[in-house]
């Protein structure tokens, strides 16, 4: 029986068929003894899979690409990218495969993608493998982001390969099964443009319109409408990152999905003490992708997308540039509007005039920075201050008098404490807890992982028994660095 028949899910190969020049048909490396570490059963059901099937000896090979379902044509996708500002014309999936596309129960098309499935022609000397820790990190953080309501790729499963992988030390291998609206990236358009094949660039744009922004097809200038349609979701996405203190860590153009989903969770982390200059990634030596720089980098990446798409905007290059610049000018306005609305909501000031809320917001961020106050805990505790119990938030400041003066003016605006509790999470994947869970899982103990997932996938509901998941890192933890896992 074929995997697709057993799972009742029908696979398609739209990318592989429609954009054959942008993918190399390839097979995942064989894994003799796959072992399931974690399966996202609710997501499996949303996609139409039977979780029991996926957990079975017949289903595990599908999750790692060793059983190719009917209708699937696995390919390693080609794309370019600006990596830390430097352009690489040929990157591509060095250790990943697009297995195919499926329509979930809701009919929406999604990619099934494998990470750590072995070397491909894009591996550039790498081994094409992944290890347990980074794959579980993506699982934890992407599912937490989904629970926070932030657009993201999601994790269906992590399967251990029991294959030793050499990194700094020898570590156990794993494959992540990732779900995405698509894996079309800014780097995909850069690759198509770099080939010099105008027809390919146009077909890629048509594919993107059909997949993500069908209304653009009805516009007078469909490709400019596509570019316009990409800008808004990116502005909103990065604003949402900033509001929860998320730091992506490696915002290269090949890591920006045009769908507006967060993609490629490598050296990512949630900020502990508030500091706009925070960098966790060990490979970001100059701080290019620091917390405060993320909106600027997103805008920069979109400018690179515009450059790649210029031939589609107008035959007159000068006019095409003018149109692209005019469109790109909307990014900052859309970002600022989304971020400020979100910050007002975090402060319980939805109905308050912007002119009244703005000075309070600016002053508060300065106080948080000066006091190096834990970002997530502060906003969660601020709800108690709105209810007249200032102690929990006040105690976070080494010199609380300035906070007292701020809080008095803020409370005069009647903040909505219940609304604040609905938008300020109690639980995020705190770095010390993520490291604890990954370390235990690497040693074979999945208990800490499961307990952390239970907390962060229900982030707004404070409840007994999970208090430690709401606490900041101990003083003994740090300085913290994250690694991409390759």
Number of strands: 12
How many separate helices?
Answer: 19
Shape type: globular
Report how far the terminal alpha carbons are from each other. 36 Å
Strand content: 5-15%
Helix content: 40-55%
Low-confidence stretches: none
Sheet with the most strands: spatial strand order: 1-7-8-10-9-3
Structural class: alpha+beta
Structural account:
This protein is of the alpha+beta class and 486 residues long. Among the domains are: 3-180, no CATH class; 186-340, no CATH class. 44% of the residues lie in helices and 13% in strands. The strands form four sheets. A six-stranded antiparallel sheet has the order 1-7-8-10-9-3. The protein has a two-stranded antiparallel sheet with strand order 2-4. Helix 7 packs antiparallel against helix 8, helix 9 (222-244) runs antiparallel to helix 10 and helix 9 (222-244) runs parallel beside helix 11 (317-328). 50% of the residues are buried. The model has no long low-confidence stretch (mean pLDDT 95).
């Amino acid at each position: 029986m074929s995997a697709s028949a057993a799972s009742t899910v029908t696979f398609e190969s739209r990318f592989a068929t429609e954009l054959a020049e942008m993918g190399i048909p390839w097979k995942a490396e064989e894994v003799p003894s796959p072992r399931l570490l974690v399966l996202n059963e609710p997501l499996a059901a949303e996609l139409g899979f039977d979780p029991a099937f996926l957990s079975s000896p017949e289903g595990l090979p599908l999750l790692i690409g060793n059983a190719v379902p009917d209708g699937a044509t696995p390919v390693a996708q080609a794309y370019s990218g600006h990596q830390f500002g430097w352009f690489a014309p040929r990157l591509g999936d060095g250790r990943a495969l697009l297995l195919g596309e499926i329509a979930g129960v809701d009919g929406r098309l999604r990619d099934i993608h494998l990470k750590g499935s072995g070397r491909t022609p894009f591996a550039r000397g790498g081994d094409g493998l992944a290890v347990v820790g980074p794959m579980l990190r993506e699982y934890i953080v992407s599912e937490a982001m989904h629970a926070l309501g932030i657009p993201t790729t999601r994790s269906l499963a992590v399967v251990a390969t029991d294959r030793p992988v050499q990194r700094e030390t020898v570590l156990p291998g794993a494959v992540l099964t990732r779900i995405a609206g698509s894996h079309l990236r800014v780097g995909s358009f850069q690759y198509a443009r770099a080939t010099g094949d105008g027809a390919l660039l146009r077909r890629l744009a048509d594919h993107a319109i059909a997949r993500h922004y069908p209304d653009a097809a009805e516009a007078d200038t469909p490709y400019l409408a596509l570019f316009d349609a990409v800008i808004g979701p990116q502005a909103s996405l990065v604003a949402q990152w900033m509001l929860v203190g998320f730091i992506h860590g490696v915002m290269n153009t090949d890591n920006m999905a045009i769908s507006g989903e967060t993609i490629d969770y490598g050296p990512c982390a949630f900020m502990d003490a508030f500091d706009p200059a925070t960098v966790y990634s060990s490979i970001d030596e100059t701080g290019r992708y620091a917390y405060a720089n993320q909106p600027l980098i997103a805008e920069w990446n979109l400018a690179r997308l515009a450059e790649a798409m210029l031939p589609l905007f107008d035959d007159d290059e000068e006019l095409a540039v003018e149109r692209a610049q005019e469109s790109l000018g909307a990014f900052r306005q859309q970002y600022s509007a989304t971020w400020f609305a979100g910050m007002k909501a975090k402060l319980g000031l939805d109905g308050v005039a912007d002119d009244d809320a703005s000075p309070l917001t600016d002053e508060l961020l300065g106080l948080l920075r000066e006091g190096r106050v834990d970002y997530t805990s502060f906003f969660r505790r601020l709800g108690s201050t709105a209810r007249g119990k200032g102690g929990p938030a006040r105690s976070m400041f080494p010199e609380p008098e300035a906070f007292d003066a701020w809080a008095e003016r803020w409370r005069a605006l009647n903040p909505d404490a219940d609304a604040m509790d609905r938008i300020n999470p109690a639980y995020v994947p705190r770095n010390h807890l993520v490291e604890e869970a990954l370390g235990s899982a690497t040693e074979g103990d999945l208990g800490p992982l499961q307990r952390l997932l239970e907390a962060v996938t229900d982030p707004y509901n404070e409840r007994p028994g999970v208090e430690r998941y709401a606490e900041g890192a101990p003083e003994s933890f740090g300085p913290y660095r994250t690694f991409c896992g390759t």
